[in-house]
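User: Here's a chain of 503 residues. Predict its fold as tokens.
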Amino acid sequence: MAQYAAAVDQGTTGTRFMVFDREGQVVVSMYEEHTQIYPQPGWVEHDAGEIWTKTRRVIKGALAKGSIEPAEIAGIGITNQRETAIIWDPTTGEPLCNAIVWQDTRTREMCQQLIADGTELIFREKTGLPIATYFSGPKVRWMLDHVPGLREKAEAGEAVFGNVDTWVIWNLTGGPQGGAHVTDVTNASRTMLMNLHTLDWDDELLAILSIPRQMLPSIRPSSDPAFYGTTQVDGPVGIAVPVCGDLGDQQAALFGQTCYDAGEAKNTYGTGCFMLLNTGADLVPSKSGLLTTVAYGLPGGTTYALEGSIAITGAAVQWLRDNLGLIENAAETEGIAQSVEDAGGIYFVPAFSGLFAPYWDMDARGVIVGLTRYVTRAHIVRATLESICYQTRDVLEAMRADSGIELTALKVDGGATVNNFLMQLQADVLGVPVVRPVVHETTALGAAYAAGLATGLWSNQDELRANWGVDRVFEPRWDEARMEEAYAGWKKAVERSRGWVGK
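Assistant: Prediction complete.
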């Protein structure tokens, strides 16, 4: 008898497969990293074939590790790094080039030209998004323009597109042997191609970007009782299990945090940082640099959100490890940062991919300001953690301006939330309590919830709310004078980073 829901969590740096019980507790988990490819400055790619190989491996490994019988799984949900674009041959299943990752900035000139052509208002009104290198649409156009023969293949129906959710679902449900070419409303809303009002691909936007409509997946609810398809007997699961949940990673975290009422918000700490505020059935246009996006789509209707997207947070910690060799692992940062009283007068603005919300400056680049001989490795590590907190404050201020809502607490999730020092610092910088749930990996949990709702493992969202539990609340300790002085220094540092490229 089915008693579990499972999720593939395909993220920017790796893939995790998790199985949850009816109480929303983790039964088993397995994770593997995949290769980060940097062909040129500003370019970030993934091998989609490697991603699928690692996905198969973690599914098989987790089921074996947890002694889970596939028949015990009611349904599988997918959650994914959003905006990362993949194009493949539907006949062979082979990717036709490397995936272009959401952090990639190669489409900067194309985006600037679109803005110069006066199309930004069209995109804003229809998609809720600014024109930016972040989103999938310009990446698809770049591949069509630069990969030899790709446009001809696309126009002949021999090349199809999907964000990573679409790629994983297609492979899970059969691949070249009838795999489902689908996405959900949350992922479709991150392409710059879906109209938020119709919840369908928009012909005018497709024409502006010269993208053939036949390349695109069909758009489905995030939790779909009709199922996208089932896993294959010869696949990693081994039997036919419904694949019926799909949410972009940040929307999945909102769903897993059970932020189902308008006004509830969460912040996820991963490669980047993403704060979402549920706005209910209302599309709230942003005047403060946020994104208007889909929170989730259920058979009964669609829920919307305001989102503040920050490109580089956890990735800055990776940079300390991989590029500078200042740390051996992320866990070290807590002790190192606590070894000094402050950041020694420095601020680190990690604008490696430009600045996302609320600035949307494609020309910004990373800076460390305020350096003196006094500054040590520990100060740089602390400034890196502080940058995560200050960027979150930027987004919170924009949300206050757009929604008029004063948050009384912020729910948090993601790998970095295990760092108690970082969570306390976040509460201090924001001036509101930070609430960490018992289950930190709420991204995978949200996708599993979507699948479990579709198959009847859970009857309604109230059952999911009952599962949510608090691990710890971090109360702010700074007085207002210290909080505002520190934040003013951050704003000054941000200005130093802006408009760097092209000057």
